Each structure stands twice: as structure tokens, then as C-alpha cells.
Amino acid sequence: MDSLISALHTHFPADRVIADELRRLAWGTDASFYRLVPRVVVVIENEADLLHVLAVTRQHRIHLTFRAAGTSLSGQAVTDGVLVLIGEGFASFELAADALSVRLGPGIVGSEVNRRLAHLGRKIGPDPASIATCKIGGIAANNASGMCCGTAQNSYRTLAGMRVILADGSVLDTEEAASVAAFRQSHAGLLDELERLGQQTRADIALANRIRHKFKIKNTTGYSLNALVDYSDPLEILTHLMIGSEGTLGFISRITYHTVTEDPFKASALIFFPDIETACQAVIRLKPQPVAAVELLDRAALRSVENKPGLPPIIRSLGDSVAALLVEVRSHHAPGLQAHIDIALAAMTGIATVETPYFSTDPETCEMYWKVRKGTFPSVGAMRRAGTTVIIEDVAFPIASLAAATLDLQALLRQHGYHEAIIFGHALEGNLHFVFTQDFGDPAEVRRYAGFMDEVCKLVVDRYDGSLKAEHGTGRNMAPFVEMEWGQQATDLMRRIKALFDPENRLNPGVILNDDPAAHLQHLKPMPPAEDIVDRCIECGFCEPLCPSHQLTLSPRQRIVSWRELSRRGAAGEPAGALGKDYPYFGLDTCAGCGLCSTACPVAINTGDLTRRLRGRAQSDFARSVGRWTGEHFGAVAVTARLGLQLGHLASAVVGDKALGILSRGAWKTAMPRAGRSVGAHRGNGDPVVYFPACGGRIFGPNAAGEAQLGEVIQQVLVRAGYAPRLPQEFDHLCCGQMLASKGLAEEANASAARLEAALDAASEHGRYPIIMDASTCSVRMQEYLAGRLPLLDFHEFAHDALLPRLRLVRQAGPIALHINCSVRKSGSDAKLQKVVSACVERVIAPAGVSCCGFSGDRGFVVPELNQHALRKIRDELPASCMSGVSSNRTCEIGLTAESGRTYRSVAYLLEECSRTQTMEAC
Ligand SMILES: Cc1cc2nc3c(=O)[nH]c(=O)nc-3n(C[C@H](O)[C@H](O)[C@H](O)COP(=O)(O)OP(=O)(O)OC[C@H]3O[C@@H](n4cnc5c(N)ncnc54)[C@H](O)[C@@H]3O)c2cc1C
Ligand code: SF4
Ligand code: SF4
Questions:
Q1: Which of 134, 380, 600, 668 is disulfide-compatible with 130, CB 3.0–4.6 A?
Q2: Residue 746: exposed, middle, or buried by beta-carbon count in 10 A (0-12, 13-18, 19+)?
Q3: pTM of this prediction?
């Protein structure tokens, strides 16, 4: 083992030092088009961890890069040194009593902070479009911003305090008097120099004015030099320089933000103008008005989304020169909102529009407009040729030049052959994004990109004195152009700052400042075609927070990155090496196949489909025939499984659950359900409904002896609500095939589904009666398979639509935990499940830190670490008073019970308990 890794092992447990080829490659990717493979990846959970990494890297003279969520677009979160992952130990959240400020760890996701602030009508200022994924460390270190925050509410402007660790291992906490006093003594030289730099800069009127001028619009090129003109206290200069420093000056260990108001009343208007110039005239008029956001879309951007549902059809017939503004106004009360709408409309009086501007207050319409606007970037990504990269550039112009600059940019893009390019942006800030696709596999194409970027930089800097990076950070991408934008004097100032904080140049070298004029053309990320279902992936990382295996093995993005590399090696005739050896476990075995990744993916990739396809390819003929036999003899399979469960209980009675769990390597769970049995039909006189009890509830019985089985409970509730349940013929021998599908045995799985369809068709008299199933994963699979041929609902959907209106419920106080499993989330029926549970219980808790439970049919038995990892936060998120939970999938409930220490059952049990008085009344 190399000495660097050994030195890390003296402090870190083995699982937090990642040195294998597969995961180093996987972590070597951020959302940019650069790739560097780290020598080692280390996960830090506290400051002591970081201090150890700093000491070891100093000793080994190696550089390091911090990584929050890795959604950076300019190449600032990749390294060939040590990649330091900010772990969950840094996800702290501490709200001030008045809610006007919040102290945050760098590892908490931005939208999670806003979720916790929402009920107070507050949020953090920075609002990057990636906020559901990116973390506070990255938001602060990139000085990220979005559609509404402008330059007034970014991290720089809303900073209230900071805890920093410098390259020499010293800690400064500006909110702790003792720390400040100690730092003033220990680092008097650094503070004196910062103070001196500030004085010199402010005294140089031309330089100071230039800095002020450049930060009037969004700017993340180079360091936040405005710190030198805005502040005289060296501590303030230091903390404000940390904002936007991209991990090159020190580590932000905690940050306190002033919170800002989140207005509850909002209205949006999508307004079309005959051309860009007219749209930009409107922007100039709107700038001083109380408008929250104004987004500009050029014709190509509009065209990229014009077929999205809900958009006015007129878009498709508009001319080639047309442009649009998406305008949002907000207020804390309804009359204020109307006033703001009136002001915005009045401001545009006399400006030519294609149609009369109209503001909608309907939340769904407004959400659709913004969703469509956010969909412009991915739409180019989704349409690109396999093997190419999608690039998003991020420039800003003085707002008065916006129209001319947009036209110039359009012309430049055309001139360089980027005909698919679109332009959109945060017009109030003069911030434009242009998106185009690029092939980096061909040297001629790289030259085309280089030539284009040179021209872009000239256009932005020489013609308009704009910003080369408005919000995405300088990274490696713009580092060679910092001096071009800022001039030598200001860039020398930046070099002095870097040398002052990091004299050995170990913190993220090559980022922000780089002497290589071609640095932006080095380490370009290959994007080889791999598999049609994932070739559209833009490696943005938006799928990661939802994935149950993220940070256990691989995330969806990392599965795709690794598979791309394996495919490239395969195509080039290179050996797959350690990557090929490790992929089956890291990539395939530990993917739950839940598809939750697709719900966050801007290009709708379900990485579970890739997993299933690859698993299928790996299946032998023998495995296929076993799969076929299983589907055809499911009755026998279920009997054998029940027998196994009975034997397990016998063994557990002797050695105990815990010992059996260890002996079976986690396959035997704490509080394992009893073995199930076949259910009998309940008689009812009411409306017929077909009920198919899925195999999970037939094999796994109730949680405790003496409790009714799921199939019995559901039928009781149906009868109580005036239905007559019908069980399909031979139902105990049938299965939807989900178990086989998850193993990649698609054909065999569909044969099972076809047999079930025939039985459901007969029982429902060709769809005359509704059909319900009681396991969400299976219900959703059958819904997809049937594609509307039969009216099939998951139990909670039927309960919501048909049972709630018929049942009189006595509500329990609770609290009760609700697990919304991945199938329910994907099918969009979560609101119905929530309503059913809320109709039964007053206090319902849906733990925010849990998405998919990772049990995934048999994964919970085969790779129990996946289920344990997915549910690692559940105990902490549930209060002690919450003793039980509900869900809608039998196997999920097994894992949830084992990992949470609470008994989870189907929502049907709850409905049955709460509707008992109805039976008594009927009696
Ligand atoms: C589709 C898409 C849309 C985007 N939209 C926007 C947008 O609207 N606005 C915008 O500004 N950006 C946007 N981004 C870019 C990016 O998401 C943001 O800049 C984001 O804030 C980066 O956060 P992160 O957690 O991913 O940080 P990372 O990428 O992990 O890190 C960012 C930088 O911060 C450094 N760093 C991280 N943590 C620390 C720390 N604790 N101390 C010191 N340095 C640290 C890293 O070394 C790196 O240099 C977008 C990205 C994508 C893929
Ligand atoms: S799968 Fe989708 S969400 Fe995940 S990295 Fe790729 S494009 Fe982004
Ligand atoms: S299917 Fe589920 S487990 Fe697999 S990559 Fe997607 S989110 Fe992760």
C-alpha cells in the first residue's frame, strides 16, 4: 500500500479511504466536462478528520480538493490529488431564535435548508437551479446564485459569520470571541497583510472603482476582490474572500447566513416579444420595479421546449426572431401581489409584445412555466448526439448592452457551427447562459471549441466589459482568462491573496489561477457512447441525493460514468481490469432498481433500467430456465419460501434473531414476519372488486402470531365499505413477475405478467370491475405492463378514491411514521397515500432523510448493507413517541421494521383499525 494511503489509514476507518480504481474513477467526475482521477478519496466527518488530511497531504507534498455535491460546471471539484468528500457529519443546521439567521455545515443540501425554513416564511438567499442537490459548502465556495437572488442575496451579501480552517490547520471562528482573539494573535501577519491589501486597493481609486463596477453585475471570475473595497476589518475581508474561492484558500467548516423572506404569493407571466431588442427594452424597464425574476429565452431556447405540455401552442407558430421573458412577481399578501403585477405591466406599456401580457397566479401554471424554463438546458443535453458533451457557458453583460450582446453571441455561435445552441438567462442581472454540444473525442473539434472560446472571451471582455463567469465559478474552464478579464494589476492582487493563504499551493491548484494558457483544454472528459438508455446523461449529479446506494457503493451518475469507461475499454479492446472485477458488486448488486433516480434526472434516465439490462446480459441459460420454471410453478415456490421462513423462526427461537442475523449475514431480520398462508375469499354483498394479493403478503405473514394476514385485512375493509371482493382463479399460483424483472429476466417476467393478466381479465369480466393489488411495486409493474388494458389500482389509490368516501373513520392521535416507497413516488400516487394516512391519524411523520428503503424485493436479504445504508437516518428522524409505521409494500416493511425499531405494516391495517366503529354501527 502506498505511504499516503497508509498514513490516512492511521486515522480513518477502512471504509472512508477509497483507493480502488472503480470508485476513484467514479468520484473523479463532477458535472463539468473535465475529468481528473484522484489518487485517493477520503471522507471527512469532522474537523479532526480534515486536520489529519491536511497534515498527511503536507507531509506527502500532495494537493487536495474539497468536494460537496460535485455539481460544479467549471472543473473546480475534480483533482488528481486527494479528493476530500464532505460527509454527513458536516450536515448541521442551527436556526437562530428569531429565524433571521441560520448556521449551516457545508455538507447540508441547499433545498433541505429551505425545507426546514419554509414554515417560517424564510429561506437562504443563494438560489442556484441545482439547489436540490448542491450543498452549502459548494454554494458558498462557488458564490452560486440563481434566478431570483441576483447580486443582493448571494452568499457574499448574506454572510453573517464563518468557521474556517486554513491550509496550515489553524481554525478561525468569527462567531467565537476566544477564537477571534487567538487568531488575531497567531495570524497577525496574515491579517495585517489583508488589511494592507484592502487599504492599498481602496486608495487606488481607479482599481477600486473597477472592482466596484465589475461586481455591479454577477461575477465569479477570479476571487471576490470586492472584499477589499467593501470591508476594512481584515476578518471581514478574509471571510468574504472565502466566498467564491472554490476551495483554493481554505475550508469552510460552518457558515452563518442571514435568512431572507420567502413570499407566499407569486404570479408569473410568459411574455413573447417580436425580437430580442424589444425583450431587452422590457428588461431595462422592469429592472427598477418590484419584480423577483426576469428570465430571457431566445428563439432557439423556446423551440427546445415548445412541445412541452401546458405551454401556449402559439409558441410553435412564432417567427425566427421572437424572444420571450418569463417574469415573476411576489408579495407577502394578495393585495401586494396585485400591486406588483400592475406595476410590472405598467412598466411595459408601449413595448411591442406578440400577445397582451398576462400574469397567472395559478400555482400549477406558474410551476409549469418555471419547469419549462429549467428544462431548456437538459433539452439540449437530451437531444445531443451520443458521444458528445453538453456545455453550458455562463457570462454576464451590463444590462444596457444585453440585446446587442445576445445578438452578437447568436452570431458567434452560428459562425462556429453551433447551430443547436440556445441562449437563456437571468436577464435582470445581465446573466446569459448559452448551451451547445461539443465532441471532445476529435482533435479538430477541440480546436473548434478553443477558437470559439477565444472569441467568446474577446466578445465578453473587449466589447462589453462583462463577466466571463457570472455564477458557475472560474474553475479550470476560465482560469486562463482571468487576467484577460481583470487585467494584470487585479490578477496580481489575486495571486498575492492565494500565496498568502496557501503558500505551498496545495489547495485545489490550477483552479481560479492557472499559468497555463491552455488549461481549459486539458483533462477533457471523454463521453464515449455506452448504452442508448444512458447516453443522454450529462453527469450533473441531480440523481444522487435520492439514490439508496449513494455513498455506500455507487450513485446513478457513478454507475453511468463507470459503465461508460468499461464500454470504452471494451470497444478499444482494452482489458476491463479492476473496474470490470468490481462493477458487478458496486454497480449491479447494490442497485435497488428503484428508479428514483429518474424522478430527479433532467433527462429522465432510470439507471435501474441499465442495471436490469446488464443483469439480464449476465444471466446464463440455466438461470433463464430457472426463472421460467419459477414463474410457471409459483405456487410451489411460495410454499417453499413459507417453509424456509418457518424453519427460520424455529432457528431464531433457539439462537435468537440477532445471532441468526449474523449467521445468515444479515439475511435474517429482527422481528421477521411469520410465514404467510393462502388467504380465503371473504363474502360481501356489495359492488364487485377484484383483489389480487401479491406474493409478498402471501409469503410473509403478519408481524406477530395471532395478527390477521394482509389479504384478510384488505378484504375486511372492502366488505366494510360495501364491496364484494373477488379473488382471481388460482391466484396463489400467480405472480406479476417483478422478482424476475429485477434480475434482468424480462421475457420470463413478462410471461408471468401475461398469466396474471389473463386471470385478472377473467375475474374482472374484461375490466368491468376495478382491480386492486396490495404491494406498490407489483401494482406499478402491472399498471405499466397492462398499459391501461385493465383498470388496476394500488390498494391505497383505491382506498383514497373509493373507500374513504364510504368509511366512517375514528382518527388516531399518532404519531405514526409513513414510508412512501419508491414505486409510489414514481407513480405520483404519494399524495393519495398521504391523504389516506392523514384521514386515519392526526400526526403523520414522513422522515425527510429517507427515500427508497433499499430493500427492493430480495436485495434486503442478499445485500443487507444496502437496506441498512438507505435507512441509516431513520432512527434519528423518528421521535421516541412514534412506535409504529405504515407503508404499502410488504418487503419494504420488513426492512423498515428491522432498521427503525418500529413495527411497520400496510396502510390497510390502519384503515381497518380506524373503521371498526362502522362495523359496530352496522351491527
Ligand atoms: C444542471 C445544473 C444547473 C446549475 N445551475 C446553477 C445555477 O443556477 N447557479 C449557480 O450558481 N450554479 C449552478 N450550477 C453549478 C453548481 O451546481 C453550483 O455552483 C453549486 O453551488 C455547487 O455546489 P456543490 O455542492 O455541487 O459543490 P462542489 O461542486 O462539490 O464544489 C464546488 C467548489 O466548492 C469547493 N468546496 C466545496 N465545499 C467546500 C468547503 N466546505 N470549503 C471550501 N471549499 C469548498 C470545491 O472544492 C469546489 O471548488 C448548476 C449545475 C448544474 C449541473
Ligand atoms: S442520470 Fe440524469 S440526473 Fe443522474 S447524472 Fe445523469 S443526467 Fe444527471
Ligand atoms: S435505480 Fe435506485 S438504486 Fe439504482 S441507481 Fe437508480 S436510484 Fe440508485
A1: 134
A2: middle
A3: 0.93
